[in-house]
Design brief:
The complex is a heterotrimer of chains A (479), B (91) and C (489). Chain B is of the alpha+beta class and 91 residues long. Chain B has helices at 2-7, 14-31, 66-71, and strands at 55-56, 76-77, 80-83. Chain C has 15 helices and 15 strands. Classes of the chains: A alpha/beta (479), B alpha+beta (91), C alpha+beta (489). Bound molecules: magnesium ion and zinc ion.
Amino acid sequence: MAGTQSTAAALSSSVASGTVKARDILERHLAAIEAREPEIHAFNLVTADEARAQADAVDAAVAAGRPVGPLAGVPVAVKDNMCTRGIPTTCSSRILEGWRPPYDATVITRLREAGAVIVGKTNLDEFAMGSSTENSAFGPTRNPLDVSRVPGGSSGGSAAAVAAGFSPVSLGSDTGGSIRQPAALCGLVGVKPTYGTVSRFGLVAYASSLDQIGPFATNVDDAALVLEVISGHDVHDSTSIPQPPLALRDAARRGVQGMRIGRVTDLPGGAEPAIAEALERSFDALRAAGAEIVDVTLPSLSYALTAYYLIAPAEASSNLARFDGVRYGLRVEAADTNSMYGATRAAGFGDEVQRRIMLGTYALSAGYYDAYYGKALKVRRLIADDFARAYAGVDAIVIPTSPLVAFRFGEKSADPLAMYLCDIYTIPTNLAGHPAMSVPFGTGDAGMPVGMQVLAPALGEEAMFRVGGALEAAAGGAK
Amino acid sequence: MAKVARLARLDIDASQVHHFTEQLAKVMTHFRDIDALDLDGVAPMTQPWPLVNVMRDDVEMPVLDTDEVLAAAPEAEERRFRVPPIIGLDG
Amino acid sequence: MSTFTNPSDVVATAGQLLPGGWELVVGLEVHVELATRTKLFSGSPNRFGDEPNTNIDPVTLALPGALPVLNRHAVELAMRIGIALNCRIQPCIFHRKNYFYPDMPKAYQISQYDIPLNADGWLDLPSGVRVGVERAHLEEDTGKSTHVGGATGRIHGSDYSLIDFNRAGVPLVEIVSRPDIRTSEHAREYAAELRAIVAAIGASDAKMEEGSMRVDANVSVHKPGTPFGTRCEIKNVNSIRALGRAIDYEARRQIDVIESGGTIRQETRHWDDAEGRTHTLRAKEDADDYRYFPEPDLVPLDPGAEWIESVRAALPPLPAARRAMLQALTGYDPQSEAVLVAVERGQHGYVKAIADAGGDPVRALIYVTQAFAEQGENPVVPAADVAALTVLERDGKLSATQAKQVLAEIVANGGGDAAAIAAAKGFEAMDSSAIEAMVDEAISADPDAWAKYCAGEEKAAGAIVGRVMKASKGKADGKVVSAIMQSRR
Ligand SMILES: [Mg+2]
Ligand SMILES: [Zn+2]
């Protein structure tokens, strides 16, 4: 793993200046993958050949004196629910096994234009439905810090890839915490940007009104760098906010002097003691850095789980209806089309996906819409209003990312509700559409990393990164 | 739940339906917590960011290659997607 | 005080009731494909008759990760329809209508549900009847299935089906009438007038035979003063004539069922034009549960007063106004063949232009309907050239026969001086003294015919007129000839 530890920022500048070859950087990372991937299973597919071609193209550009992008020669792993032209995109599902998209997702296009080198497609809970990456049709991903434990999910493969040094940064998608929770469980920085700042075009939808793509990195600066590359308006996504890419350079180093940071007094309990203590230490650190800690309340927060697990499955039940064995992907032959649908979908989708499709279909069905989906949309409004009230008095809010550190395989997979409860601290910001990031802050049970979560109002990424940077600095000292 | 499985086009056997029903019952019980809320006059929130009138001009964009697309289909014939007889569906 | 309210309070006149005193109740659902260049939510072409599966893109095929983006021109065309149908054009959103069918790629149709773009309008039929329009909403079309094998080539008993997605995602406006229609004649009138309107405003080519206009009829019967009967939805009506036949058949069928003690079940029925009857397609189960919910991939649409007014201002005159104009100009009945043809072709303005250029209005209308079928809305022939010809005929300088020949040449050459062409053809105008001489010759040549004519036997005139025409080689004006004969009588 030696030589795969420098930051993405450092790598790209040394590549741009010609002091290091993108190809050499890639080979070092491919070697790291070779050494440890069999044990970790971060990837559904390692695209070594395409990556080598991209790296060589970057080196050729540098040699020819042509300008290269801000991620020149930086290896990036991408979650296997983002479309890559001609490269299999499976969502870790049998139903899409072997399907090769005829087009690139917008984030993939932007990575390529920035000179990034895509090293592979990472494992996930099938269709991003899960919090442990145990729901992959192709087997679980292990936590590089303790292979007897889960990396979190659903973007567990992208988190493990960075934690194992397979790539300095990676992309995940976050619908209810699927970037922030695995970042916390793997000791990384993970960012869920404001809904609408990163294009969803080419991201295979789980829950359209909640999904956002974001980065994993070993440090706050690299997360900012990747976010600058992938954010910004996209005409192919009607929900994309018409504004230029985020500008977050050095935000992490601006400090928190004079900032007002919220401490939620009615936070739903259930967090491990060590995590609760870490939260208090984080407030001390921020106070020491010059911020004012202000108590806020979010009374509707405890209803977020219910709202989320009605809205997300409802949208998913519709989004996943297109997997019908007619145009692409798996088909199980049957005597008539209707039987073919049922057989194909039952064989192609795993249990958790089928559970959520059933849940969502039920929540939308005649006679139940008002009692379930309709109500959930109103609760969603209450939660957004709570945040609006809180942000009238503070610039950001800090809460834990996950109520527990990385757990062992099988510990929660038996009981869906127990698994759902892992998302209790991450779900609210998806419902509100706000940005949130997880920053490593000390360790908890069994020495596993703890993640502290910084929440900010819509388009409040700059404030969020300032606080994230301060926590990172403090954690560095605290270790 | 069997009706829901039919609506969702999931051919799952009775025992599986039973299994799901048990698991989901527990979840649905938890979901009753929002019944306590007074939601009268609360506007449903369908989207996080208030955009309106996002439209494109009526101009042609590149199309996909028919052969490439049909090659990825489970079954195709005469430049069309082939499916088993359509019965038990409206139309 | 009645204990029920029907969704329409229109009452049939005694003359409109069906045998046995039954009242027919019809509501029409009309789908028109909008005349856009591209699809409703993607940039692939909206074009009829292309090679299968060539107008496809990630959105059309519902590839994973694809997202819809609304076509502004489709919205504008839908607004034109709303304005033409006197609808309220309102802020609205899109919903997903979820159902599985192989020609529906996403397994949901993006449509509009509780808040359509256009609501609460009406359509006035030429006969004077007003039919309420409940809504006219935007939605996307499906692909096309071809059923292979089996005896009929129909869906039932076929061996398999083939799907072409070229039509999937083509913009549609679904226009839903209120159940205000009480006769099959009015239903046909409604469909014909609606087709004329959407064509006149350039919203759709509305060709029923190509499927760019599709009409479904909700038909029920009941006794006046009682609640409406159970309705059946009739599909696969491919012409306006078929619409009338299908409704008449279905009404008769329902009456027979009820009068023989049976009951009507709500179902969708398929019109077989060859057999002249409807078949059960499927019972409307409660099982079709579309699970409508707001489309999260699209944002709300709010046309706003400014846009609406600019569309309204640019709207061309509607067929009714065009017919009224021609009636005022020519005195012809607005429903007369000539008027309908000129309006259908959009040549009403050209007829007006000929009259404005000093032409004879009636002849202008006749010339245009007879000789300008291939010319489109703005014929190249200068209106003044046609005007000059109408005057020559009116003033008896040319006979109708001669005028026709001159007109043919003018149209063929895209214009020309009528008088010069007439002269070149040797159609020199005959002065009436020459014609009088010919008439006298004819009278002396056939005294019996003349006697009969004078005795009041009008048809005897034919023999005399024939001789004059022969003598003049068709140059004499028939009207002038009979005028002279009258004076000699
Ligand atoms: Mg309909
Ligand atoms: Zn429709």
